[in-house]
Design goal:
With 322 residues, the protein is mainly alpha-helical. The protein has a domain at 216-307: GIY-YIG endonuclease, CATH 3.40.1440. 75% of the residues lie in helices and 7% in strands. A 3-stranded antiparallel sheet has the order 2-1-3.
Length: 322
């Protein structure tokens, strides 16, 4: 236990005694006795602690000195051992160098003998190669003469075949050009017939939709709400036309009258309702599926969206239900 800790405990004890003195006046005699005991214990323990501290410090210094002497002896022993190792290494290196020198002299002698033997063998090989090269050159000259004669024959044959192939290709090219010209004319004729047929079909389709829409009653939103009170619900499509902006909205419903009413009361297409509230002029047409000749509401709605281009210049976002 350190002196600081002892002082801290002494202060805590004094604080406890002071607190007890104020809280328990009837026990002050016991408190004084208890405080005296604590003070005596601390006063007796403090000199003992100081003596022990000095003894411990002296013992630590003696241990450090003994350790230092041991370290010095150990360093001297290591230095002596290293010197002995160096001496042994030098002797061993000297012996190895002498042995290596002897081996190098023997290897040099062997290399000289091998070099002489290699030179003789190389000389013999060069002589044989020269003889073989002379024979090969003579054979190669004869082979080249034969190859040149064959090449001249092949060149003549190739020239003749190229001329024939060129004439054949020219004739085939003329035939293909004529065939391509005929096919192009045929394609243009068919495209023109198809275009005319498509225009005719488009015209008939537009006339059919125009007849369907013209056979329905066109009314203003006010007239529609007056009629709605007296008319019965039906399944079909409706055409909302913003005459101020020339924009169309095409829709379908199994209850057409209720659905059209929603558009002009803020529960349908937001853009239609906004333009209507800002004063744009609208007309309404309602067409029953039963009187249209169509078998499907989706097909009837899709055709009217296409007829009035309502998904491009109108309020519709799509081309209809696919």
């Amino acid at each position: 236990m350190g002196i600081g800790e002892r002082i801290f405990k002494l202060l805590i004890g004094i604080g406890i005694i002071v607190l007890a003195w104020n809280i328990f006046p009837e026990s002050r005699t016991y408190i004084v006795i208890f405080g005296a005991i604590i003070a005596m214990a601390l006063l007796i323990g403090l000199p003992i602690y100081i003596v022990e501290k000095i003894a411990n410090k002296r013992r630590q210094e003696e241990e450090k000195e003994a350790l230092r002497r041991k370290q010095e002896e150990f360093v001297k022993e290591i230095a002596r051992h290293q010197a002995e190792l160096e001496r042994k290494k030098e002797e061993e290196a000297k012996i190895r160098n002498e042995e290596l020198q002897k081996k190098q002299e023997e290897m040099a002698k062997i290399r000289r003998e091998l070099a002489l033997k290699r030179e003789k063998e190389e000389e013999e090989v060069r002589r044989q190669k020269q003889e073989e090269a002379a024979k090969w050159l003579e054979a190669e000259a004869q082979r080249r003469q034969m190859i040149e004669a064959r090449q001249r024959e092949l060149q003549e044959e190739t020239r003749r075949r190229n001329e024939e192939e060129f004439r054949r290709q020219q004739a085939e090219k003329a035939r293909l050009e004529e065939e391509a010209k005929r096919r192009e004319e045929e394609r243009r004729r068919r495209e023109e017939e198809l275009r005319q047929a498509q225009e005719e079909e488009e015209r008939r389709w537009s006339e059919r939709l125009d007849r369907l829409s013209s056979n329905t009653l066109e009314m203003s939103p006010k007239g529609f709400f007056n009629l709605k009170e007296r008319a019965e619900e039906f399944t079909g499509v409706y055409i909302l036309h913003n005459e101020s902006k020339d924009m169309y909205y095409i829709g379908q419903s199994v209850r057409v009258l209720s659905r059209v009413s929603q558009h002009f009361t803020g529960h349908g297409n937001g853009d239609v309702y906004a333009d209507f509230k800002y004063g744009d002029t609208f007309t309404i047409r309602c067409l029953s599926l039963a009187n249209s000749g169509y078998g499907s509401l989706d097909a009837l709605e899709k055709d009217f969206i296409k007829r009035y281009n309502a998904n491009v210049t109108g309020y519709n976002k799509t081309q209809g239900n696919l």
